[in-house]
Amino acid sequence: AQAGPGGPICFFDPDLARLAQERHQLETDLRHAIRDGQFVPFFQPLVDLQRGALVGAEVLIRWQHPQRGLVPPNAFIPLAEETGLINDMGRWILESAGRQLAAWQHAGRDLYLSVNVSAHQIPKGLTPDALHELAQRLGFAPASLALEITESILISDVDGAQAWLDAVRARGFRVFLDDFGTGYSSLSYLKRFTVDRLKIDQGFIRDLATNAGDRALVEAVTAIADSFGMQVVAEGVEDAEHVRRLRAMGCHYGQGYFFSPPVPLDAFSEVGRRIPEL
Ligand code: C2E
Ligand code: CA
Ligand code: CA
Ligand code: CA
Predict the structure, then answer these.
(1) Ligand 1 neighbour 250 (Cβ under 6 A)
(2) What is the C-alpha separation between 45 and 244, in angstroms, rounded?
(3) 128-138 and 86-106 helices, crossing angle to 10°
(4) What percent of the chain is helix, strand and coil (3-state, nearest 5)?
(5) Which of 35, 48, 64, 226 has the smallest CB count inside 10 Å?
(6) Distance between Cα 176 and ligand 1 center (Å)
């Protein structure tokens, strides 16, 4: 630092400089990753709790970094959103999910996929027409693809979000509301925005056995979903006790480590045979 007459006029913080440098490096790497196709879709099974059957999967992205190995999404999605790279990345993810769906449908496998969509992709980057074009070009049924959105999308631009939702669903795609209960969830949103499923955040599932409040909440959300013609997915299903309680509460679907963590495609193909008898 250099001191002027009135104190330091220039302040150099080595930690800040290092952070800025790391961020810059990450951004550069991310551009290369998109160009070179370093992303890998992982698949986490979605299980029909009432029937005890594998019905689909959520696509969760991983970055196979040439030096750092497998990087989890929380380490790069925020930067991708800030820099706008999420649009290219999101297109790649949808494209690979679509190709997988087309392959399954070609082979007569009746599974669907849900893909996480960032608020930054909506409504402009990811238009209903672009989705429609994708399904046509790759040859998969629109109903086999679900877009997972969060409440933040609904809040940031209410009219735009509603128009987007309606158009996407009119095209035959499904929409799931992710992390339900963690945002500014208000029951009025459910009345206003029609979605196909509510994914109850894992924070409400974790202590289901000991926390009566969480139980009441999951039960109430399931009842509300039923009355609106929606279904409920419990996230973070980690043990047999969770499954038992969720089934008893009439919860429709479950996803979590109890069934399987997110896995690469070849491992996912084995999962169907390993879903425990419910
Ligand atoms: P999310 O959409 O809420 O995904 C669920 C997260 O919970 C995943 O973390 C998953 O691995 C983890 N999980 C699944 N089952 C269990 C369980 O039983 N217990 C616990 N404790 N955790 C479980 P992951 O894969 O690290 O993804 C983190 C977040 O990154 C996702 O949260 C999602 O918001 C975002 N993300 C992942 N893939 C994509 C993508 O392709 N596009 C966008 N925009 N975001 C993505
Ligand atoms: Ca999700
Ligand atoms: Ca979630
Ligand atoms: Ca989340």
Answers:
(1) no
(2) 18
(3) 40
(4) 50, 20, 30
(5) 35
(6) 14
